[in-house]
Amino acid sequence: MTDHLVQAIKRDATALNKEEDYNLLLDQMSQAKYALLGESSHGTSEYYKTRAELSKRLITEKGYNFIVVEGDWPACQQVNRYIKGYDTTHKSAQEALTAFERWPTWMWSNEEMIDLVEWLKTYNEKLPTEQKVGFYGFDVYSLWESMEEVIAYLEKTNSPDLETARKAFACFEPFNRDPQLYGVSGAFYAEDCKDEVVQLLTDITLNKKRYTSYYEEGRLNLEVNALITANAETYYRTMVTDNNESWNIRDRHMVTVINKISSYYGEQAKGIIWAHNTHVGDARATDMADEGMVNVGQLMREQEGEENVFILGFGTHRGTVIAADEWGVEFERMIAPPAQQGSWEDCMHQAGPHDKLLIFTKNNQDDYKGRIGHRAIGVVYNPMHEQYGNYVPSVMSERYDAFLYINTTNALHPLEVEKVVL
Fold this sequence. Notes:
By secondary structure, the chain is of the alpha/beta class. The chain has helices spanning about 1-10, 25-30, 45-60, 75-85, 95, 110-125, 145-155, 160-170, 180-190, 195-205, 220-240, 245-265, 275-280, 295-305, 345-350, 385-390, 395-400, and strands at about 15, 35, 65-70, 135, 270-275, 310-325, 330-335, 355-360, 370-375, 390-395, 400-410. The chain has 2 domains: about 1-45 and about 60-70 and about 270-410, EreA/ChaN-like  fold, CATH 3.40.1660; about 145-265. The chain is built from 17 helices and 11 strands. Strands 1, 2, 3, 4, 5, 6, 7, 8 and 11 form a 9-stranded mixed sheet that branches. Strands 9-10 form a two-stranded antiparallel sheet. Helix 3 (about 45-60) runs parallel beside helix 6 (about 110-125), helix 8 packs antiparallel against helix 10 and helix 11 (about 220-240) packs antiparallel against helix 12 (about 245-265).
């Protein structure tokens, strides 16, 4: 299988040497309403830089008008308000990126993001408010921060829903912002705040017409933060007893947030999604499906139709990466060793040790139908144990619409930010 696959890659892949080599990819990608840009680690410089350059061209040449990333909504709102000129608190992109205080901070508080954020601000300055490009987060982790955002909004609007929000927030106070403590309490002792957050979400949803924005995007911000409050409560309570279902809750939440943002931008909405390959690469083409797990790529294809979703996977053969050896500890610059023999990344390397792009088409997809190990590096990583758990069996031509391979990659450059562990 490996020899056949290597020959197919040699035949079908395009070497990446100059900007024009991405033209065909951008043309095909732009036919979809959503462009999903993956990464095989959260700590690789080239993934961020390449996604940024692709995003710039999708915005300027193809009419895309928002970016959604695998980050917390409240922190991403600080960036969004900076690039749209709503908030003059932050004087630079670097200052705006200090909003990312939750571990792993390096995912968005890094030097690679500075250029994109400043570019977005400059690009937006010449546009009317309704045409400005947005930057949002769609993750589920910001339970306490999102509740605080909800309360702040309701206080400023003198809302009758304020008491419901305060009651929900008070319910969580005994857990001292510790999601694991809350999860154990809810899962095993039936001491949870489910009723309070459901009531809050229900009230805000039923009364949303009363919430005319007192500041830019206020209603969208309120609705999404209320949604996070409800879904995060469910996520943390489920995580303790069912890891697979908690994953599903998280990815379904991500899709719901995308839908909220799309609705805000209207019929002309075209979105760019940045997330790990494990989120954007269709779960049905991996062993995730065997475990009853879904992900953003699968759900978006099912919801929108495959022709309206373009998924680009990323990968490398070797290099360095930012990660931690356990959850919540200080990050390290680690060696990412050469890809495991017989893996997808190894085959890409054997087809030529250079950067390349492979677009899957009706004419070539059958050559990539076999399941093959595809490397995935998370925020927690141990290179010494990579062969035991970092390769996801995948049907590559079904998981992605195209794959961008960078032969040798380098570690991300984190900004120095005080870290708050999730």
